[in-house]
Amino acid sequence: MKGKKLLTGLSVVALCASLASPTFATNSSNGNLTNPNQELPVVGFTDYAEMVKRLQQIEQNSQGLVSLEVVGQSNRGRDIYKARVGTGDKVVLIESEIHGNEKTGTEALLNILQYLGSSNSPEAKKIREEITLVVLPKMNPDASELDRRGNDLSWAEVVERFPQLAGATRPAWNYYASGVRQARDYTGKPGFDVNRDFNPDLNYVPKVTDVPGASNQPGWYITPEAQTVRDVYKSLKAEFGKVDVFIDLHHQGQYYVEGTDDLVTMSLSADFVPDPNTPRGSKYAQYKDNYNFEYSKQLNLAAYNALQSLGNNSPFNNITLYDQNLDLPGTALGSFALNGSGTVLFEVRGQSHTLGQKKKGQLVKAVETGLYGILGGVADGSVEQLDASKYNQIPRTSYSPGL
Questions:
Q1: 236 in Cβ contact with 86 (< 8 Å)
Q2: How many CB atoms lie within 10 A of CB 309?
Q3: Cα 288 to chain center, whole Å?
Q4: Which helix or strand (DSSP H or E) is residue 127 part of?
Q5: Could you count the other beta carbons within 10 Å of the beta carbon of residue 206?
Q6: Distance set, CA 352 to CA 103, 107, 137, 326 (Å)
Q7: For the chain, what are the domain ranges?
Q8: Other CB atoms closer than 10 Å to residue 285's CB: what's the count?
Q9: Nearest residue to 284 (alpha-carbon basis) of 328, 242, 243, 323
Q10: Which helix (H) or strand (E) segment is 144 a member of?
Q11: Which of the residues 3, 116, 254, 280 has the least number of beta carbons within 10 Å of its own beta carbon?
C-alpha cells in the first residue's frame, strides 16, 4: 500500500470531524462477508419515502440554503428529486442509485446536504461560495424500492413511447427480460440497466438502426430516469456554460488491492471512454475539444488523497483504481466526459445482495470523505495543482488475493 498522502484543498479532517468515526480493523480481517444462503437485510438504508421526508426537512431547516425540486418521474411515477446548494460558478453534479441495489451514495449525499445546508464553518461557507452543488439522490427510485440493478420498465412500454423502434429485431441489449441477475428475479417484472442508456449526443432521438446496440456503443435515452438526468445536465449547461464535475456513486463486488489480501473498500476511476485525441478514441473525434482527461484524473486524486489522509492502518487506505481503458459511451460518466465534464466514479464494496447493510457506516464514511476531498479541492482551486500523472500510482484492483 502507498504511504499517507498530504491532504490538499479545504481541510477534509475538519469537514469530516462531525461524522461518526468508529474504529475499524484492517479490511483483510473482514473476510468474505457473502453468504449465498442468507437474505441480507437493507432496512438500515434510507428507503424512498424516508428520503423524500429527509430532503424536505433539510430544505425547510436550511434557511434558504438548500432548494429542492422535482425534475422528473420514474417509469412507475415516483418523483425524482434535485437538491441544490451553493451559489458558485463551479458546477458539481452528483447522482446516486442509478442501480437500486447500490445504496451508500444516497446516505452520503443526504449527510452532505444536511451539513452544507446548516453549517457556518469556514469550509462549508467556502464550498457554498465557490460551488453550485446539484445532487440527484436515488435517481432510479423504482429499482431502489425493488432493491435491484434494473429499473421497472418493459420493452413494450418503450415501443409504445417510441413507435419508431417497433421494427427492432430484438430489444436493447441492456434489457433484463427475465431470469435472475444479482439474486433478483426479473421474470414478470423486466427492466433496463439505466446506466447504459446515455448518449453523448444530448439531443439524440432513438433510431431503430441503433438497436440493440452494444456496451461500446451509445445508448438511446429510452428510460425516463436517464432522460431526467440528461435534462438536468442540459439545463445546467444552459445556465452556466458547462458542468465542471460529474460524479456517479456506485457499488461493486468483493475485490482485492493488487498484490495483497486486503479487501477493497472503494475503487475510483476517471476512465470511461478512449481519449478522442488518440487513435483509439477517433470515433469520438467530434468531442475532442471538450474532453479533459487530466482534470478527471486530478479530481480522482483529490478523493484518493482525502481517504489516504485518514491513516495508514485503516480500511480507508484500501482504495484502488477501477478497470481502466474502458469504452462505455452509454454510461452517464462516458457521455458527460465527452461533453467536457471532469468525471469521477466511486465503486464501493458490496451490493445489497452480497453485503446487505453490513459495514454501512464505514462505507458511507468512505464516500463522504472522498466527496469532501473533491468539493474542497474544487472550491479552493487546489485540485488543479495536483499532478495528474500520480493517478496511475493508485493501486490497481485484483479479482483474487495476492501475496
A1: no
A2: 20
A3: 24
A4: helix 122-130
A5: 20
A6: 8, 14, 17, 25
A7: 12-398
A8: 11
A9: 328
A10: helix 141-146
A11: 3
H or E element that contains 90: strand 90-96
In the sheet that 90-96 helps form, which strands lie side by side, from edge to edge? Answer: 66-73, 79-85, 131-136, 90-96, 245-252, 342-349, 266-269, 319-321
In order of 78, 99, 148, 246, 394, the CA distances from 140 in angstroms are 9, 7, 10, 17, 31
Start-end of H helices in 152-198: 155-161
- Beta-carbon neighbour count of residue 178 at 10 Å? 11
Query: What sign does the CA torsion over 125, 66, 20, 398 have?
Result: negative
Q: Which three cell numbers stand for residue 281?
A: 478514441
pTM to 2 decimals? 0.92
Q: Using a CB cutoff of 8 Å and minimum separation of 24, what contacts does 33-42 make?
A: 33/254, 33/350, 33/354, 33/355, 33/358, 33/359, 34/254, 34/354, 34/355, 40/352, 40/353, 40/354, 40/355, 40/356, 40/357, 40/358, 41/356, 41/357, 42/103, 42/147, 42/352, 42/356, 42/357
pLDDT of residue 211: 98
| 182 in Cβ contact with 133 (< 8 Å) | no
Asked if residues 278 and 343 have their Cβ atoms less than 8 Å apart, the reply is no
Can you tell me the distance from the alpha carbon of 332 to that of 336, in angstroms, rounded to the nearest whole number?
Answer: 6
Cβ count near 295 (within 10 Å): 21
Is there a contact between 353 and 36 (Cβ–Cβ < 8 Å)?
Answer: no
Using the structure block, give the residue that is written with the C-alpha cell 412500454: 157
Residue type, 74: S
Dihedral of CA atoms 222, 252, 324, 258 in degrees, nearest 10, equals -170
Which CATH fold would you assign to the domain 12-398?
Aminopeptidase (3.40.630)
Give, for 299, the enclosing helix (H) or strand (E).
Answer: helix 293-308
